[in-house]
Amino acid sequence: MRRLSAAEARRVALAAAGLTTARPAATPNLGHVVRTIRSMAVLQIDSVNVLERAHHLTLFTRLGPFDRRLLDRALEERRIFEHWARMASFSPIEDFALFRPRMESRAAGDWPRMRELSARAPGYVEAVYQQVVERGPVTVADLEAPGARRGPWWGWADGKIALEYLFACGRLAVPFRRNFVRYYDVVERVIPSEYLDGPPMGLADAYRQLLLRAAKAVGVGTARDIIDFFWLRVADARPLLAGLVADGLLAEVDVEGWRQSAYLHPEARAPRTVDVRTLVNPFDPYMWNRERVVRLHGFDYKIEIYVPAPKRIHGYYVLPFLFGDDLQARVDLKAERDASVLRVRAAFLEPGRDGGHVARELAVELGEVARWLGLGSIVVDRRGDLASALRRAV
User: Fold this and answer.
1) Considering the entire predicted model, what is its pTM?
2) Residue 241's pLDDT is what?
3) What is the CA radius of gyration of the chain?
């Protein structure tokens, strides 16, 4: 069995995630955006906007300053599609067929809210579907009887529950968003026929392909790392990994310091050196599996958005700083748009790193972020052991 050093595994993972590729020298265009999403396999969507929405930050990490409207264009021009790959996500349009069997396998019984709605209002969901057929694209506000919200966040109205269920099952799709609001239409009017009308794929075949997509996106990972990437069902996915190894589509390897064996994608490469300087947001695919991040970098990360303020260790919206081939610092950032300020509310250095060097490079990257967001200045607060050095560098 091939053995990888810890450093090799880290470089493989960074390269597979698209974090070692140089940012475009010219202004990124639509092709750059689509190719980046294709190489990542999935781009998670998130609404938190304290700095910038996560899907835009993830692209910025790889492309540098880009026109955020390009992502809307990619969706509207059917270069990508929105679905529940993991959480709400964008994927390349050509991968639609791989996810469709999982969509179609979803049943109302899997959703407690759908069970309750179906029992309380038989026929309501189909009535909503018919409204979309006749009037789409629509939002929940366009429905004839959308119902009332039952609380904040996930306290959805009946109409939202019905639309989301139909979307999750693949009967509806998203043609576009406006002001982050999702619009729904029947899938046949959204997904191009060449991706919708191909030969049907069984769930097992789809899982095999998704496991390969996931393995390519992580480069090297344990069974859990790969299965977790698309939140596949472990009982269905794990037996398929052995078959992919037997078929020569994945290689089983041993990684220094890892307690479990790992799987290496045949296209994975370990650059000899990695010279990266970028911020990585908590919804970036590279950060999804926190235990894997510990294995790769010794970097223990927890998103603290939902932690009460007095109990937060590092801050509300903390981004790791990737410099060289390692995660070397973390900063709590906020875009104060009214004041045109990028505020660093806290800055922390990882143990054993060169604070002066890291601070200088981090200051350069923060300048790139500020310019991209149209913010005129950077203000560094005093919290954190890197704050003083970063304030001087800024």
Assistant:
1) 0.94
2) 95
3) 22
